[in-house]
Amino acid sequence: MNWTAGFRSAVISPYEQLKLAEPRGFAGQTVRQVLHMAGGGERLRVRLTNRYGRAPLTIAAARAATEHGQAGLTFGGADKTVIPPGEEAVSDPVELSVAPGADLTLSLYLPEETGLATYSHMPMETAHVAAGDHVASPELPGAEPVDARFYVSGVDVPAPGGTGIAVAFGDSWFEGVGSTVGANNRSVDFLNRRLGRGWVVNQGIAGNRLLRDEIGEHALGRFDRDVLSVPGVTHVLVHFGINDLGLPGMSGEPPATAGDLVEGFRTLAGRAHGAGLKILVATIGPFAGAIYPGVGTPEGLAVRREVNDWIRAADDFDAVFDVAGAVEDPEAPDRVHPGLDAGDGMHLNDRGAQAMADAVDLKTLAL
């Protein structure tokens, strides 16, 4: 058995974030977070990150808990660790069983001023923050709920040789924006439930683009870290394009061109194949009804249709999953179907997330 990814969280700099999720730091506080596991095992280790921090990150105590028990985490045998700016720490392995599709609760005590935290800004899960060291406490007195995830980049578990691992690499339609908070109804969660074997780990970042840095590094910039570094990865599923076409309009800029998007997808395919991975690419979802000013422009929507026609016919990929066709309104194909719309015209509700997952032909994934 080798270590592989049971959970992954793509993280961003606190200086690159949407107005919907405010960056923050901590001092003398416990942060408790729920991590929904794609894979499971009898042992685990936790990956903590200070990738975008500007000061050393001191973690005085850490504890993991599952339905089978709990265990304190150590780092090189010590309860305390200090992670330098730009670095990551991996805990020592602990004997703690966690099942695929189950939740792991992670508690961190941060005794010193952290500065703004490296974080995942829209994980569709609520963290809880309380003053003092309550890592070992069943409850957090006076806890403040925060809709973000902090300092966690992954949880590794040992898996039998030959276990297939896929990475869902993309934007908010993978991260789960629009689905019910805390319900684990992201498209990736539905896909894992369909599979029943093999694991798909979620590396979606809401607002992320294929071609340009803004909310996190663009896809080509983060591909090595967020896809190739996942142990045991065999497949990558890709959903990008909405933010390249919609977000520029919020600041009066033109959308990406069809030629640039096609070249970006081709570059991703080449890098995936060069690393021995199979790549499955989604058509770009509809967003004509977006409530955000400047997003649903005629120019951006025309490019969406052109690029989708190319994706459906291209031979650059191992498979295509037609997300656009699965969630569009038949009466107005540039719009999300009303029954699948989260309410903003740009994101999917729980039913929409399931429809996105159902668009994947499991024979093409074959984990």
Write the layout of secondary structure elements.
Blueprint lengths: L1 E7 L20 E8 L4 E9 L7 E3 L1 E6 L2 E4 L8 E3 L4 E3 L3 E5 L4 E8 L8 E2 L6 E5 L12 E3 L2 E2 L1 E8 L5 E6 L1 H4 L11 H9 L3 E6 L14 H10 L4 E7 L2 H5 L11 H17 L3 E5 L15 H16 L5 E3 L1 H5 E2 L2 E5 L13 H9 L3 H4 L2
Describe the structure.
- The chain has 367 residues and is α+β, with helices and mostly antiparallel strands.
- Helix content is 22%, strand content 30%.
- The protein has helices spanning 172-175, 187-195, 219-228, 242-246, 258-274, 298-313, 323-327, 350-358, 362-365, and strands at 2-8, 29-36, 41-49, 57-59, 61-66, 69-72, 81-83, 88-90, 94-98, 103-110, 119-120, 127-131, 144-146, 149-150, 152-159, 165-170, 199-204, 233-239, 278-282, 319-321, 328-329, 332-336.
- The strands form 6 sheets. A 6-stranded antiparallel β-sheet has the order 6-5-10-2-12-13, with no helix packed on it.
- Helix 2 crosses helix 8 (350-358) and helix 5 (258-274) packs parallel to helix 6.
- The chain starts with a strand and ends with a helix.
Short structural description:
The chain is 22% helix and 30% strand.
Please, how many helices?
A: 9
CATH architecture of the largest domain: 3-Layer(aba) Sandwich
Distance between the termini: 17 Å
Low-confidence sequence ranges:
none
- CATH classification class of the largest domain: Alpha Beta
Which descriptor suits the 3D outline? globular
CATH superfamily of the largest domain: SGNH hydrolase
Overall tally of domains: 2
Strand content: 25-35%
Helix-residue proportion: 10-25%
Spatial extent as radius of gyration: 20 Å
